[in-house]
Specification:
It is built from 17 helices and four strands. With about 350 residues, the protein is mainly alpha-helical. α10 packs across α16 (about 295-305). The protein starts with a helix and ends in a 13-residue tail after the last helix.
Length: about 350
């Protein structure tokens, strides 16, 4: 990556070339003795990589990918995705932790048909944003607050109304997945009055049953409900029944599309039925490397259930979302897996 950035900036990449050119070892994007760019050079590195990726994909003799019109059908079906002047509003991906990160790849292929037509592989998210910046490749605008990896911003009204896409998941599966993903520490977490996530993580891992300690930590529950209500995932908030009803309303009235992680195949089909655009082979690219085996995951579910773990706000939200999702799929004749949620067992 560093060599690619140096090449884009016109700097010699090989050590011998650098010596001949008289370039000091600390003048490139990756100074000696460092495994990553210096903080002051990080922005330049990202920009260089993005430029290099864009230039590499440009047609010979052209200034960039050819311009095309709006997505066929989507503007007529969902006029609120465009403003009064015909310009697309910024689509927001409400990225709830461990609820289907690959959704962003499908969203990108939908909003960037020029890229979809030329891409012959399915890149990971970081590669996607670095090599194919949306201003050069996309017909719709994206809120980059949601597209940046590691940034899980909640729904914000009225700005995000009618332009938000999200994914929901069985809350027990979500919390186990978050734990298995390196004991994920969500945004908004407070421990002993501070934001020291490392100390909290050390406390969890030192417990006799780390998963139980992790899942039962008060602020960890109701993540999906809280993010629809405008709170950070791990904000320590007591979610009332009235707040759950408001989260359901927002999901139905403010979110333009939502899918279910457990119904990934149906989600990809329903997305295009509702928002238009052509299916892409990357739409079904939902696999992400997991550190846990299926047996370990099943035992984790059983452990939490045996300890009486419940996340009632998120369970109610997920059950409501499942009913609506199934009704929408039935309307378009989309088959479902029909898997029962873990909390119902």
């Amino acid at each position: 990556v560093c060599k690619l950035a140096d090449a884009a900036l016109g700097l010699p990449t090989a050590s011998s070339e650098r010596r001949k050119a008289g370039v000091a070892r600390d003048r490139g994007s990756c100074p000696a003795g460092m495994g990553r760019p210096a903080p002051g050079l990080a922005l330049g590195l990202v920009a260089a990589v993005a430029v290099a990726g864009t230039v590499a994909q440009r047609p010979e003799g052209g200034d960039g990918p050819p311009a095309v019109g709006p997505l066929p059908g989507a503007q007529n079906a969902y006029p609120h995705l465009w403003d009064a002047t015909g310009e697309p509003r910024r689509i927001k991906w409400l990225h709830i932790q461990k609820c289907g990160t690959p959704m962003v790849l499908m969203l990108y292929m939908w909003g960037c048909p020029r890229l979809a037509a030329t891409l012959n592989h399915c890149p990971r998210e970081r590669e996607l944003f670095a090599m194919y910046p949306s201003p050069q490749w996309c017909d719709v605008k994206f809120s980059h607050e949601g597209l940046r990896m590691g940034h899980h911003h909640p729904l914000r009204l009225p700005d995000d109304s009618g332009v938000t896409v999200t994914m929901l998941r069985d809350p027990i599966k979500r919390i186990v997945s978050a734990f298995n993903f390196g004991v994920m520490t969500p945004q908004g977490l407070k421990y002993n009055g501070t934001s020291d996530k490392r100390r909290w993580r050390d406390m969890v891992l030192a417990s006799p049953q780390p998963l139980v300690e992790y899942a039962f930590f008060p602020a960890m529950k109701s993540c999906q409900t809280k993010m629809l209500l405008g709170f950070w995932c791990a904000r320590d908030v007591e979610v009332t029944s009235a707040m759950v009803q408001e989260a359901k309303r927002r999901l139905l009235e403010e979110v333009v599309f939502f899918g279910l992680t457990e119904e990934w195949e149906a989600t990809t089909q329903l997305f295009h039925k509702m928002l238009g655009g052509a299916m892409h082979h990357c739409d079904r690219h939902a696999a992400r490397t997991s550190r846990a085996t299926d047996t370990t995951v099943r035992r984790s579910y059983d452990l939490l259930l045996s300890r009486g773990y419940r996340d009632e706000p998120d369970e109610q939200l997920h059950a409501f979302a499942t009913v609506v999702f199934r009704q929408r799929c039935a309307k378009y004749g989309i088959p479902l897996r029909g898997e029962a949620p873990i909390y119902s067992t």
